[in-house]
Q: What sequence folds into this?
C-alpha cells in the first residue's frame, strides 16, 4: 500500500512537472512578445519627444510652406492648398469659420498651428 502511494505521488509529480514546463515555455514566449512591443512603444515615444523638442512652436498659418502644412496630421493636399489660398488669417478658428477645414480636422491640428 505504501509503495502504491509513493508510485502515485511520483506519477503526480511527473505530470505536474511536465505541465509546468509547458506553462514556462508559454510564459517565456508571452514575456518575449510583451518585451518586443514595449521596445517598439519606447521607440515611438522617443521619436515623438525628439520631434516635440526640435519643433520651434506652432506652425504659422500665414507663413508656413505647403510642405510644412502637409506634415500636419490628417490634412490632404487639397486642404493645404485651400489653407494657403485663403491667407491671411487673424486667428486659427477662421479655418472653421471660412469652411476651409472641418471641425474634426481643425481639432486634430489646433495645438500645432498658430497665427502671428
A:
Amino acid at each position: 500500500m505504501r509503495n502504491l502511494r509513493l508510485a502515485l505521488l511520483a506519477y503526480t509529480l511527473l505530470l505536474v512537472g511536465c505541465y509546468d514546463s509547458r506553462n514556462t515555455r508559454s510564459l517565456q514566449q508571452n514575456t518575449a512578445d510583451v518585451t518586443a512591443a514595449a521596445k517598439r512603444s519606447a521607440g515611438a515615444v522617443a521619436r515623438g519627444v525628439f520631434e516635440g523638442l526640435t519643433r520651434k512652436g506652432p506652425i504659422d498659418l500665414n507663413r508656413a510652406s505647403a510642405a510644412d502644412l502637409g506634415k500636419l496630421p490628417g490634412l490632404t493636399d487639397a486642404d493645404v492648398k485651400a489653407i494657403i489660398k485663403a491667407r491671411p488669417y487673424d486667428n486659427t478658428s477662421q479655418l472653421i469659420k471660412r469652411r476651409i477645414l472641418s471641425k474634426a480636422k481643425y481639432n486634430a491640428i489646433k495645438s500645432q498651428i498658430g497665427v502671428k
About this structure: The first strand starts at residue 59 and ends at 60. Residues 59-114 form a domain with the DNA polymerase; domain 1 fold (CATH 1.10.150).
